Amino acid sequence: MEEVPGRGAISLAVVLRFVDIAVEALAEAREEVDALNVYPVPDGDTGTNMWLTVSAARDAVREATGGGDPTADLGTALGALARGALLGARGNSGVIFSEMLGAIARRLAATSSGERNAVVMAEALRHASDAAYAAVGDPVEGTMLTVGRAAAEAATERAGRPDARARDVFAAAAEAARAALARTPEQLAVLRDAGVVDAGGRGLSVVLDAAETVLTGRRPVPVTAPLGSHAIPQPVTVQHDLSPDGPSYEVMYLLDADDDRIPPLRKALADLGDSLVVVGGEGLWNVHVHVDDVGAAIEAGIDAGRPHRVRVTHFAEQVAEKRRRAPVRTGRRVVAVAAGPGLARLFEEAGAVVVRGGPGRRPSTGELLEAITSCGASEVVVLPNDHDSVRVAQVAASTAESDAQGGLRVAVIPTPAQVSGLAALAVHEPGRSFDQDVLEMTATARHARQGAVTVAARRAMTMAGPCEVGDVLGVVAGDFVVVGDDQLDVATQVLERLLGGGGEMVTIVAGAEDPEGALATRCAGWVEERYPAVDVLVYDGGQERYPLLVAVE
User: Fold this and answer.
1) Backbone angles phi, psi at 159, to 5 degrees
2) Whole-number pLDDT of residue 325
3) Among 344, 340, 400, which residue's Cα sits nearest to residue 367?
4) Which H or E run contains 409?
5) What's the whole-model pTM score?
6) Using CA atoms, how far apart are residues 265 and 268, in angstroms rounded to an integer?
7) What is the dihedral of CA 357, 181, 144, 52, to 10 degrees?
8) Which InterPro entries does the entry mention (predicted)?
9) CB–CB of 29/443 below 8 Å?
């Protein structure tokens, strides 16, 4: 960091160099990071997601500074960096990384005259770590969260020395991150068993190394990460969604509160109900939660600060209230992520706005935000149809609602698979109230048992035992439960497991590797012969990496 002795002097030139070098560093490392994958199919795209996130931040900064003019306004550039990262985020790792970049940008923008750069940068890294932990509902140690926290702690310790400069702080942070990354296999058995370090932590370490290079000119020697056949799953976000037996009231209010009061508020409200969203910053927050105990939800806000514009709605009265409040209704749309051309046609024929996605090309926050805001509806339901895109969809939804300032309602149904989204869309009914429609779609998606057939791209250990490259894998609810050498045999075992709990309808979706639908057709024949009372639907999905997707309702 270029510094003026005794004064804070955050340089835009350094910010511009950092985003350039970070993009280049992640571009070089992304294949390595992607390869840190605990799964036998190449669904791990952590490195790609982080590279795309910082690339979007870099592009936003350059656009805001007229192509990279170092004399442009620093505050504008930092604001663009934060929003660019947010809109460019893909997957869990990308969202967490965008939260960290945003936190750093906000702290740098708030620098005042007289602050030591070393202290500012240490605080920025601490804010980034705090933001990363706040981004997930159930933090898992041994991930990029742990690596970021170690970097922040080392930075804080180094900044406490009176002679510390920003370059010293980032050198200490980068070194601590590399050390913490090397320890991640000790914290997660899945990493230890696979002989790899955490993918997100490795990506974060690359970025911190880039920052050290910008400030010192040195290129640190990275941790040598053994590349096995596995990668760490990302931290899991706790989902709070409607259920048929869910809370009866929707509580919303604006809240004047200090930022440090929000984490305990989120915890208190999460214990009271579901569908929790708390968004905002700089002292003003928008709170939304579904509860049975209205008083407790409001008291939690009083404990945190000053709630105002409080609104309580009983779901049974929602339709009548909406009619009174909004005489002109612009309708409701569904935004669905589709992993193949055939699936895109299916969603479009059902009336959905389609965003292309799938492993290796998951949609960004910005792409989903654009689909939500441009569809012209006042109520939007989002189907991410992929477990690693749920958090991205939630960020896009909250951003859309915040930008619309009350003119838009968005609900994300955490559909973990394409067939889950098809099941949810099948019961979509715009004539119902928004909350009732979301409830029915959510319940249907949850009740649809889903499976798949794929082929192992690397050696790995699965729930069904070890697999080798080329083995056929059967998937049920995201777990590999069958290992075999014949696609039809594995597919029928998956169907048998799914139908073991009963079912009235089976949906079979043929992938790109089964263009004529031969495997899908044979599976349909097997179901009709073994379960004559069960209806079977067969579609051409065109999805990659999965010759067959299956759902049982």
Assistant:
1) -70, -20
2) 45
3) 400
4) strand 409-412
5) 0.69
6) 5
7) -40
8) DegV_domain_contain (IPR050270), DhaL_dom (IPR004007), DhaL_dom_sf (IPR036117), FakA-like_C (IPR033470), FakA-like_M (IPR048394), YloV-like (IPR019986)
9) no
Q: Output phi, psi for 165, to 5 deg.
A: -115, 165
The SS3 assignment for 76 reads: helix
User: Which distant-in-sequence residues (6+ apart) come within 8 Å of 544 by Cβ?
Assistant: 339, 340, 358, 359, 360, 511, 512, 513
Coil/strand/helix, residue 464: coil
- For residues 288 and 275, the answer to whether their CB atoms sit within 8 Å is yes
Q: Enter the DSSP assignment of 511.
A: -
Mean pLDDT by runs of 10 across the 553 residues of the chain is 43 89 90 76 77 92 90 93 90 89 93 87 95 83 94 95 90 94 89 84 93 78 41 30 55 87 90 75 78 87 89 60 45 94 93 88 90 91 92 89 82 93 93 91 92 90 89 92 94 94 91 86 94 93 92 92
Side chain identity, residue 336: A
In sequence order, the 6+-apart residues with CB closer than 8 A to the CB of 170 are: 1, 121, 155, 208, 211, 212, 215, 216
Helices within 197-293 (DSSP H only): 199-216, 262-272
Phi-psi region of 33 (alpha: psi -120 to 50; beta: other; left: phi over 0): alpha
Give strand pairing partners of 465.
Answer: 462
518-530 vs 487-499: helix crossing angle, rounded to 10: 40
Count H helices, E strands: the chain?
19, 16
The two three-digit tokens of residue 229, written as one number: 């056949």
Please state the length of the chain: 553
Check residue 230 and give its pLDDT.
Answer: 32
Percent of the chain with pLDDT over 70: 87
